[in-house]
Amino acid sequence: MDSLLAPVIRQLPAVNFDNPLSYLDIALSVLIGAGFLFYMRKFPVFRVILGTIFLLLCGLFFYAIGFTVTGRLFNFVSSLIFISLPLIFAPEIRHYLGKLGGLHFLRVPAFSHRRRDEVLVKNLVESVFELAEKGTGALIVIQRRIGLGDLIDAGVIIDAKLSPEVLESIFFPNSPLHDGAVVTVGNRVVAARCVIQSLPQMKLSPPFGTRHKAGLSITHQTDAVAIIISEQRGEVSLAENGKLDLNLSRPGLTEKLSQLL
Questions:
Q1: Could you tell me if 122 and 112 are in contact, meaning their C-beta atoms sit under 8 angstroms apart?
Q2: Most trustworthy range by pLDDT among 70-74, 96-100, 234-238
Q3: Which residue, 25, 61, 122, 202, is most buried by CB atoms nearer than 10 A?
């Protein structure tokens, strides 16, 4: 039977049902599959997966009643869709595999970084609120474990130490670099004028504009953190994992960054 389930079906005779561990093995596989579907239910790809499973079940049904040609047709279509999923949902797959690689149990233990992180957070908070107090709008993207090479390469390379003066010179309204985002890596500003494509699902009502949408979009696609400064209201917001924390105070931003960086 030309089916996505054929490799699984071929392996069934090799299962030793006299061994109690075989039943545990099967139960674990079912739980992993159910957990995967439960996790994916929140994302657009879930409906495609459900639709493909429905086509596959239709193919199995037609095979069972003897409609071989129709069964093969359904199985061919479902196989084609599954093969195409990595191409159709490449950004989403990259995003969630990156998150999987960032889980705590997979991290390499870090030693003696606490002091460096405290200095970085203090420098960021100072720089951000100096811009906010002057009514200078800005979008600062902070790289974490997932590299932002594509975004950096599309911008203007700066490679300067992070400071209020550097950020103010970039985001000054008459500056040729003020449009777009700044990308920081560690304690350095590596690129400016980086254009982030806003995702269609990132819909915000006024008074939130393109900066907030761009900040949400980059944090939805990667594990980066984005700090958004509103020039109209002088408010500081933080985006992480596609979620937005609005109107943060100095202590609030310090606490958030200390947890995330």
A1: no
A2: 234-238
A3: 202
Contacts of 21 by beta carbon, 8 Å cutoff, 6+ apart: none
pLDDT at 4: 52
Q: Of 206, 208, 207, 226, whose CA–CA distance to 216 is shortest?
A: 226
Statement: 114-260 belongs to CATH 3.40.50.620: no
Please check whether residue 54 is in contact with residue 60, taking contact to mean a CB–CB distance below 8 angstroms: no
Structure tokens at 229: 């400064």
Task: Give the total residue count for the chain.
Answer: 261
Q: Are 188 and 162 in contact (CB under 8 A)?
A: yes
How far is 226 from 205, CA to CA, in rounded Å? 19
Amino acid at 168: E
Task: Show me where the domains of the chain are located.
Answer: 6-88, 114-260
* Beta bridge pairs of residue 237: 228
Whether 48 shows a pLDDT value over 60: the answer reads: yes
- Give dist(CA 214, CA 216) in Å, integer: 5
Beta bridge partner(s), residue 236 = 229
| Residues contacting 255, CB < 8 A, separation 6+ | none
Residue 253 CA to residue 121 CA, distance in Å, equals 9
Strand partners, 240: 225, 243
Q: Integer distance in angstroms from the first to the last C-alpha of the chain?
A: 51
Q: Which residues of 145-182 are buried (b: 16+ CB within 10 A; e: fewer)?
A: ebebeebbeebeebeeebebebbbebbeeeeebbebbb
Tokens of 178: 């003020």
Distance separating alpha carbons of residues 240 and 162, to the nearest angstrom: 20
> Considering the entire predicted model, what is its pTM?
0.60
The stretch 47-62 carries a mean pLDDT of 82
